[in-house]
Amino acid sequence: MLALLVVCSAVAVTGPLAGTGAAVQTAGNTAVLTDGPNWYGQEFAVDVTGGTGGFTAQPGDTVYLLGVDDETDTVDRTAKVLTVNSSGYVVFETDDIETDNRQSYALNDDNELNSGAVNFTLEPQTLDLEWEADTVASDSESVALETVESNRGAGDYNVTVSADGFEYEQLRALLVHPGSDLEEVTDRYHLPLDRLGYDRDDGDGVAEMRSDGYITLNLAESTNYTDDGEIVANFSNLAAEETVPAEGDYEFDIVVTDSTATDRAAVRIGGVAAEFESPLYTRAAGDVASFTVDLESTDRTWVQFRDTQSGFVDVLYLQDDNDDGEVTVYANTRLVGTDHSELSGLTTADSEVVYYSDNDTVQSYIHDEVIPPGGTDVGDARFYDAPAVNSSEEITFTEYVQRVNGNAPADQLARPIQPTTYELVADRRGEFTITDGEATVADQLGETELDLVQPSARSFDTWVAPEGAADSQQTVDGLENNLTSRQTAAIGDRMVLRFNTSGVGGALAAIDYAQNGNSIDTGLSEGYDIDVLYTLAVDEDGTDWEGEGVNLTLFGEEPLNGPPETLSLDEGDSEDAYVLLDQQTAEGDQGTLYTVFDTGATAYDDSISDRQAYDVEWTYLTGAGRFRFSGPGPQGGTGGDVTDPTFPCQNAENVTVGETISFASRELTFDSVDDGTVTLEPTTDARVAGETNLAPGTPLTVTVRLAPPSDAVPDEDPSFLARQETTVDSDGTFDTTFDLGNRTVGEAATVRVEREQTTIATSDAEFRDIDAVRGAYFETELDAPATAGRNETVNVTGVVTNTGQTGGTADVQLAVDGRVTVRGIFDLEAGESRRLNHSVQMGQSDIAVSVASQDTSQRTTVEYAGDTAPEQTVTPAQNLTPPSQPQQAADGPQPTPSGAGGGFPWLLGGGAAAVLLTAVSLLVVRWL
User: For the whole model, what pTM was predicted?
Assistant: First the structure.
């Protein structure tokens, strides 16, 4: 698409010279000198006999074209020596004047500057054109050759275009077509004959240029070019009138006819391509599906969406509006094929609640032509009751659907589209045919499959996150980085309910669209207000979703003769409770629904208190019969009865997942406490540590002041010593150090821990010489696997070490799921360690394990990893054994195991073991 134009001005001019106004182009190749930009390559004729040139000369006189230095206003060279012709004109061409920049010139009858000189400038024209797409379809109706840059403006000139592989007739059909506002230039006086090597004096003209494959276009009269900088090519018109060149790469050369500007624009001509990014897309039925079509050489296509088993069919029109070469479509599988306008708050125009594309166009024949009045681009599709396109067999879309499955377009489904494989096929021109009673396309470009799998509710677990607004993380990835597995949340932290479930994404998207005006993809990336979930799963009575069969309950204690206590999360706003959804994307994947709520929100003051607990349940109800629509809309229930709920895509028994959650007041204890007083060491790395039930990741501020404590004392007060920021670790502990090397033994102090200016705990403290007075301090370590499969043996090990300066007695307990399984009481010298072992068989749920001494403790969770081990019989064994390296024997009381079978190895030591083994050997020999 070419190119160019030279508005080569026409006729020789008498007019304006130095100091005159703006340029006015004439109709030929000879331009008028102006004091504005004149362009290298133009030809100028100046009348110098009548005084209008600034000087007077006669035919035959010599005239000079001088190059002028703008900085010194002096002549820097003589560009041309000219002779006045018999008509009294000086005529000169500028395409042979060598320069790359704007240059000032003077025309004078003397070889120097004076007041009679005609002053003007010449400037090289820039031209940069390119095709709007790297590849164009051989039947594209509108592809633009666009002006990227030209310092001459858009259109005040003509251009001559050529391309290897294109003859003149092909270029004309491509560029001068119905709907085009371009006109061909044929007057030889307006053609760049000399520049292209033709002999004007020998009569060469438009015929010779056409024979060589050139066409000259008048851009000055083209609105497309002057307004938008576009020359619009029509390859479909080329195909109709001439022959489209073979598929391949072509370069179009563009020459501005009255300047030295040229450019080359490359394009690949090929067949239409519309390819799906993936050969298979997987979603749970009822969720929001998405697929992407790459449009390599076109900006639009049609896609047929059909169920090969039931015959359900819809036709989509896709258009790439943002020119990124692709269209991504979101399809609400809960609403596809139903009358979406039957939902409360929606009209027939709200088709985007079913199909949506961000920044591009997607239209459905059912939802944009049948249900609303119509008149959209998808209505341009054509349908034929024949295996091939045949105008005598053309039918309407309604007839097309009826002949495929016997139903009207919006009445094809008795229930939402069910778990099965759906076919998506792209067509070149939107022509659809019927072959052997099945819906087909006339000219297939690409295809993919949408695999809708059975929705499920598989498991439920609970997590805690540090204090914050419920919607402070609006992506699943962002939220998961802050989670710790716990069933009890410290009041003020966030509690997270995680349901491994699928099949509700479409309903949530529809509710969010109707209630909040959000597009159906918004919740997938940003989450949902809690009201959206409650409309679907809690407050469904009397709503569009009454028969949906999705229930979420949070019930507490049930008083005598009264309803159970209820935690109603919808009493808060999005800062108090929020919902995130991670949809299923593969057959074995688990979709995940997160409900996050701020346990410290004032909205839940009456529902959340210390030691309060709630049973959480997520249920898919299934009635005696299957879900059916109650009318043309998407509502329904068991057998069409909206008052008898049943999940639309679940045919098994009622599916329920859940467990108990609870809450506790914030707690924090300090390490190194002696008789209620925290011991501080007057060193540069004095340590303050402890344990808390606040969620791991919680930021804490630890402050040390001289006694007495006072909240009113400003930080500048001398009583202030130091402040450090720290974070709660994954095991619930915190640890920080201070530079307190200028304090003295015996001084009293106060230690305070705060969370965002809220005091969590305070304690009296005293500076002591710990190296001199420190007694035994028993630190513990815990070793257990992170995961285990059902029936797998889980080995848990706890180690206690005396890290003090003197000996002492350690009381150590190893616990599984809160029950002490092994207890050991050891007399340990400084630096001595002992180990406790316990084995347990993994069931079908996570197990919590811990080890604790009177000073420290650790805990972790062994997560259930599924059925990964064969069933076996395991006899629990508790052992109290020394660590791997030799340790000095304890002098104090022996371990006292709490479970049967424990402690036996501790009866064996040194010589006793040798005696027992010898006795066993003798008995065996005697028996033999």
Answer: 0.66
